[in-house]
Amino acid sequence: MTPAARPDTRARLLGAAREVVAADGLEGLTLRAIARRAGVSHGAPLRHFPSLAALLAAVAADGFARLVATIDAHLDAAERRAAARDRRLLAVQRIAVAGAGYLDFARSDPGVFAVTFRRELIDISDAAYREQGYRSFRQLVTLVEAAQAEGWHADRRADALACVLWAHVHGLAVLSLHGAFEGAAGDGALDDLHQLSLELSLGPAAGSAANPRTSDNSSSP
Amino acid sequence: MTPAARPDTRARLLGAAREVVAADGLEGLTLRAIARRAGVSHGAPLRHFPSLAALLAAVAADGFARLVATIDAHLDAAERRAAARDRRLLAVQRIAVAGAGYLDFARSDPGVFAVTFRRELIDISDAAYREQGYRSFRQLVTLVEAAQAEGWHADRRADALACVLWAHVHGLAVLSLHGAFEGAAGDGALDDLHQLSLELSLGPAAGSAANPRTSDNSSSP
DNA sequence: AACGCTTGTTGACAGTGTCTACATTTTGGT
DNA sequence: ACCAAAATGTAGACACTGTCAACAAGCGTT
Question: What is the pLDDT of residue B6?
């Protein structure tokens, strides 16, 4: 009707994509559905992205950035909780908190999380996607290096340790979203499994720091 | 041309599906491509499966069965290698070998492995899929229980430990196939990362048993 | 005023999953 | 042996998809 220049169609398309995948899942995440949700014609998205894969790569890059922010927020909150008790977090405990943030992100936005790791859907050569993914990995490497400075496996390569720790939480997130843990354990079992995973990988000390509900008893009188 | 009843169209469709996904990946895995590869018309598959999702669920169920067989083969081979040196494998070492088999399956058939865990592609309510998946999980639980009988975390729930160990190798497999480890480490790094993961989760003793190349030096004089 | 660039719409095209109508083969009961 | 019924395969249609080409409207620059 009015083929005028909308001010921020690109951003609205990304938002629409997140809404669509949140509402209808990956099978409903089509270019035309995104366009409908954004209120534009089915050809409009291709003026801002060369293909659907490029649009989804932008969604994924944004997802990585959001993941980094989520983990930072979890770290800040845990640090504040510790400071309220006149304590500081050990570096391995910060790794545990980061893992909890990773799982929280996957649970709160399962669609975006799935898109971010779907090689056949996104353009994995997208520059922003690779950059944000690398930034997320660097966030973890920094945490690992801090733990190594406190003596935790100081003789190993930091990037290798980061890869393994990433794989551990990623496996928990993926299998949980797939529904693989439904038969074996009850509701909210993901946090328990994460705790167990942390005790195996980081030692008993780190496991209890990840989940606020089990570690924070400062508010009780 | 000849609308006659082929003898084993169902099995040929499953084989064709595996061929297609091996050749063209998940984006080329369409119902019509499977039919073409199997040499039947595009409507024939729906005579044997109610939908594409059901066909792929059968592929996935078959994949689970093949995964169990692969892990069994790895366990047998490792047991034989140990017997040649007049030794027996510890139960935690058998868990490590099973993990190596899991990664081997994912690497040797990445398409089928991906299909098996793609919730939006397969009919996850399929009875055979659920049964074979449960069988695969039971295989791991049995290994865990044997390790617990030898004292390894005997106080924890076996199914929870199995979930965590499964998540650890699954995360390694998924991220490796995604290409997430390409920037950080060189070729064949997956086995090294698995070794490191095992040392973190199972202790230093178990790590060296997984990979034949690093553990088997019985052939040297 | 005239031009070019950007942004958006519209219609087309090949390809997809699934359905229906039809043809053929196989099977089972009598 | 025969005939009906079920099973199996084909061909065409439908709605839907991603992508492309042609066209129109608004905008800034000269």
Answer: 60
